[in-house]
Amino acid sequence: MQNRHAVADVITKLGERFGERATTVRAIRERHGQDESYHAPHPPDAVVFAHSTDEVCAIVELCAAHGTPIIPYGVGTSLEGNIAAVHGGICIDLSQMNRVLEINREDMDCRVQPGVTRKQLNRELHDSGLFFPIDPGADATLGGMASTRGSGTMAVRYGTMRENVLGLEVVLADGRVIRTARRARKSAAGYDLTRLFVGAEGTLGVITEVSVRLYPVPEAISSAVCPFPTLQSAIDTVILTIQSGIPVARIEILDATMMDAVNRYSKLDYPLQPTLFFEFHGSPAAVAEQAAHVGEIARDQGAGDFVWAVRPEERTRLWHARDNTLYSAMALRPGSRALITDVCVPISRLAECMLATRDDIDRSKLTVCIVGHVGDGNFHLLILVDPEDAAEISRAKTLHDRMVMRALALEGTCTGEHGIGTGKIAFLQAELGDAVAVMRQIKRALDPYDLMNPGKIFAGTSEPLPLPII
């Protein structure tokens, strides 16, 4: 339990240093304690809008001296309660640290502040012949994407943030600033600290710069939508496509319920059937060849006709509809909240996991949409619930738990890209066993007083060290 007098002292000193950029306004605090998930909001005691690494250091040092928790914040698009201030404290809003610091065209990399969003970065790369491919759907910040090890629709070809973050600048819990790597594309120098902080969800430090890998804009891009008679046939098409080594850039699945929501929300008229969204990148000849091979596989599975989107505006409309699945789903049931969850399994176990989950959905009598980055075995449920109906919420949680435990039984993971936050804590031990104890040791070594985004990732952690007397 933090000392309320110490918190008040911190807030006073932040106000003296940052003026209106340090605020205790209730509406702002509440917005910073709630992400886009169904998890209960927990507002911080104050929010500070940082503009530089030096300012982050000053905030961290002040909070450390008073034993006050610190919660880093990007734009609040996380989905597992990752930003909730479960123990109060100071939220450091990094959204105004949003400058692209350096673009190295020859080396195909760039360095950005953590508040730069993926769409902003690609706008700034527009004339460079390069682009940043990681697309989690939401226009998330790169700092947040690194913190949650995000991925999204193009991970099947370009990888996740784990593969595409080249280095970080991080402010540690005691105010020290470290850089985890230099610009060389590979290194065997010591521990891989970059990977340690990617996915740490702000529990080990505050990311203040991100260096990422860039890619050449493909010479040709073509997208397509293809309906299938059954969920099984769509999944089998995915598995055969990946096992055939066809380098699709994106391969997404939306079930019939999700397609109904997308049609209504985005004013489209796709068939109300399980549907795959494809995108192919490469030379014109390579794109044509990839599409032809996938077309053969799909036809063998009883697929309908491919609907192509070749012109940029057509592709933008198609993927905009895909990216808005959360809002499309919620519009199916106005006033509902979406319990959003994801799992990831080996591609060979995808059909087993998804079809068994579909059976659970049918038995639950809940309104549920399935959407997934199935090229890498990752799929999501959007479970629509009445927030005032305790029985319905209980059924939704039962459905969620069965899905996660099934994924673990199939040698998968409890979260492919959302992170643990507060929502998946119960499953981490089941997934990784004794490795969780090692994570706790790392946390204690870097954050002995448990001030960095406490209450996330771990359950039943050992007591933090007693705070020093100030």
How does this model look, in words?
The chain has 470 residues and is of the alpha+beta class. The chain folds into 4 domains: 4-95, 2-Layer Sandwich (Uridine Diphospho-n-acetylenolpyruvylglucosamine Reductase, domain 2), CATH 3.30.43; 100-216, 2-Layer Sandwich (Uridine Diphospho-n-acetylenolpyruvylglucosamine Reductase, domain 3), CATH 3.30.465; 220-326, Alpha-Beta Plaits; 329-409, Ribosomal protein S6/Translation elongation factor EF1B (Alpha-Beta Plaits). 38% of the residues lie in helices and 20% in strands. It has helices at 4-18, 26-32, 53-66, 118-124, 142-147, 155-158, 161-164, 193-197, 231-243, 256-266, 284-300, 312-323, 325-332, 350-364, 390-409, 425-432, 435-446; strands spanning 22-23, 46-49, 70-73, 90-93, 100-104, 109-112, 130-131, 165-172, 177-179, 205-213, 215-216, 220-227, 250-254, 275-282, 307-309, 337-344, 367-373, 378-385. The strands form 4 sheets. Strands 15-12-14-13-17-18-16 form a 7-stranded antiparallel beta sheet, with helices on both faces. A 5-stranded antiparallel beta sheet has the order 5-6-10-8-9. A hairpin with a 4-residue loop joins strand 17 (367-373) and strand 18 (378-385). The chain starts with a helix and ends in a 24-residue tail after the last helix. The model has no long low-confidence stretch (mean pLDDT 94).
